[in-house]
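Budget justification, computational time. The allocation requested in the original proposal was used primarily to generate structure tokens for proteins on the priority list. As evidence of use, we reproduce two of the resulting records. The first is shown immediately below.
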Amino acid sequence: MTKFIFVRHGESIGNALRVLLGHTDFDLSELGYAQAAATAKALSCEKIDYIYSSDLLRAYNTALPNAELRGIDVSKNENLRELYLGEWEGKSVSDILSAYGDMYDKDWLGGFGTFRCPDGESTKEAGQRFYNECEKIAQMHPDNTVMIASHAAVLRSFFAIILEIPPEEIASRLAFPSNASYSEAYFDNGKFTMGRFSVDGHLREIGITKFGS
């Protein structure tokens, strides 16, 4: 069995400014760095053998404190990136609302599991990409604990696959994980099972944030 600890990146500069990033490479905000440090502290007693991260700064810099505590490296992997947002990359929510009307609220937030950004990746495709990569990582590291630092939309889609939630029901049944929260899953006999999801109690004093992307 392989145990996975999934950490969503801390608050990014994009989150703080309410800008959708996708593959756009903004770093963590000051709060995001504090959240990342708090999560590393909360997980300090966990036996973690390998650490992987999306190759985007906000995820990598969330993984780094955990790696430094253990004296191990972070392996960057572009297949662990966030959903590619196409025409929405790097745009503020206010600009998206102005240009695309109710698509943001109705289709992105309300129809998350079946949504595709204009000229972008669908949430289903991104979730499957992430799932496939995690399956490969699990097969490389049997009987180990692996941390993966990644992003809100792909984590939400990944856990929906594990829970067998139909795409059209994800928006109502499974939330975005909080920034710098951690979630757990287990891979055994070719199948993932879910542990805890979006654990964020250790962030209460610092600030819990959840803005998507």
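The second record produced under the same allocation is shown here.
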Amino acid sequence: MVFAALDAKEIGSLGAEYFLKNYTNKESISLNINLDMIAHSDYDPELFACGLFLYPDLRDPLEDSKSEKIQLLFGHDDPDNKEQSDWTFSSDHKVFHREKIPFIYYGVPDHKDYHRSTDTYATINTEFYIEAVKTIIRSIENLDEYLSE
């Protein structure tokens, strides 16, 4: 596993572009997991895993990752679903997707502090964030087992 902290998402995912362009073993990347906006849930404790419409074989390992404290939902990746915005190209995972590398993007819908000066550590929903991280860790473990088969 490679953990990469990428920068410059807001100006065209320059960090992701640079990483993928300069990573010497790109063909060995089997999955991109992107965590973006996972610490804020204003209303219902919902975390979305986006990308499963495009890569449906990754869904089963995530079904076993669900939490009792937050809802792990799938969606925001079907361009024909008019009830949800399509997040396929909304964050750094788009760079990997364009290179035919499967992705799962974890995130929440826009919240009251999104892109505002109030989007700070103090406004993080700590309980939600901890449960989101636990859910994502279970997902990674399940996906690792699935992809290793």
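A brief technical remark on that second record: The first strand starts at residue 32 and ends at 35.
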